[in-house]
Amino acid sequence: MAFDYQRYIRGGKLPHIWCPGCTYGTVFKSLLRAIDAQKLDRNDIAMVSGIGCASRLPGYVDFNTLHTAHGRALVFATGLKMAKPDKHVLVVSGDGDATAIGGNHFIHACRRNIDMTLLVFNNYTYGMTGGQYSPTTPYGLSASTMPYGNVDFAFDIPSLARGAGATFVARGTAYHVPALDRLIVAAMRHKGFSVVEIMNACPTAFGKRNKFKSPTDLLLWMKESFVPVEAFEKLPPEKTQGKLPMGILHSREGAPEFCEAYFAMVERLKEKEGTGKP
Question: What is the pTM of this model?
Answer without folding.
Answer: 0.94
